[in-house]
TrEMBL record:
Residue stretches making up the Aminotransferase class V domain: 24-394
Alphabetized Gene3D superfamilies for the sequence: Aspartate Aminotransferase, domain 1, Type I PLP-dependent aspartate aminotransferase-like (Major domain)
InterPro entries: Aminotrans_V_dom, Cys_dSase_SufS, PyrdxlP-dep_Trfase, PyrdxlP-dep_Trfase_major, PyrdxlP-dep_Trfase_small
Record-stated family: Belongs to the class-V pyridoxal-phosphate-dependent aminotransferase family. Csd subfamily.
UniProt keyword terms in alphabetical order: Pyridoxal phosphate, Transferase
Enzyme Commission number: 2.8.1.7
NCBIfam families: sufS
Name of the protein described by the UniProt record: cysteine desulfurase
Cofactor needs: pyridoxal 5'-phosphate
Organism ancestry: Bacteria, Pseudomonadati, Pseudomonadota, Alphaproteobacteria, Rhodobacterales
Amino acid sequence: MYDVHAIRADFPILSREVNGKPLVYLDNGASAQKPQAVIDAVVKGYAEDYANVHRGLHTLSTISTENFEAVRGKIARFLNTPTEEGVIFTTGSTMGFNLIAYGWAMANLREGDEILISVMEHHANIVPWHFLRERMGVKLVWVAPEADGSFDVGKVADAITDRTKLISLTHMSNVLGTIVDIAGVVELAKPRGIPVAVDGSQASVHMPVDVAALGCDFYAITGHKLYGPSASGAVWISDARMAEMQPFMGGGDMIRTVAQDEITYNDPPHKFEAGTPGIVQMIGLGAALDYMSALGMENIAAHEAALRDYALERFRSLNWLNLQGTAPGKGAIFSFTMDGGAHPHDISTIVDQKGVAVRAGHHCCQPLMQYMGVSATTRASFGLYNTTEEVDVLVDALETCHRLFG
């Protein structure tokens, strides 16, 4: 049985007050809170087991290395990736997409080649491709969502040309909650030999992900959204794409030998992991994945679906609230504006006085804001510890805001 109140007790920060009110944390799309198990793993990593990883022969280095490398398998199992060796540790999805851009795309794309992306993408899955547009002359081809925020895979089929060399899409929009049919995109791309990269920053948090079933070539995740530490994450890369890549960063750990006139590289995954990594951050991410797996991703998804449905029912009773994105089956992520002149920044500031934490701005999705015809939205994003009672607190806070501006 999914006991959300017992789960909440695992998160120390949820017991605090903000502005004299119980904290209602609805900014999970930006960064999630951490359970005590993750906090304990980080403290233990520094207080009891810390040493640098790899090559150290002393006891602490061995323990640290074993704990650190064990996370690779945990990520592989969490995402059901075809290979564990394809899991590259990163600081998050931003680093993951830069690794794909500099390690794979720069070595395999040429001037005039096309990268197909959606208007819904986070800047992490836009800006690296703009770098290639500026520096190599590749072309960005954009696919827009439907009016309700849903994403028609048929538009991807229509946009593919002989010059399409990469398709890079979000699995779940961090603004609209829209879930993209990645398997359907792969079915279109694979016969044409087009690699598919996926931003799993949101999807991996809210629903079971089976990378093997999706069939994609790259899949990136971000640890701090997965209830783990900041500066942790990974990107899984298929064997075929890995063989086509060149190292993105140079330094320790990614080399086998260094001489004055030559170097030889380490084997993957270490070939793409230069320098001393975020050792304790990754161990903390491993603890977060253990925690989520123990709850069950299917159970988390079912709980959040119930929250989504309840929130939608409450929001639809507010005829002055304009929801952005109502696609069927979307995640529990809601972006909205309000009639009456309240700017999203105003809304966020006012509901904060009720203890409610939401985010306001463009959410690192400026092309999507432009497409929707707004400069910013307020976003309430739910997680595994949120409750229907917190939805009610949010609605009450929004009604207060509307009265002030109405």
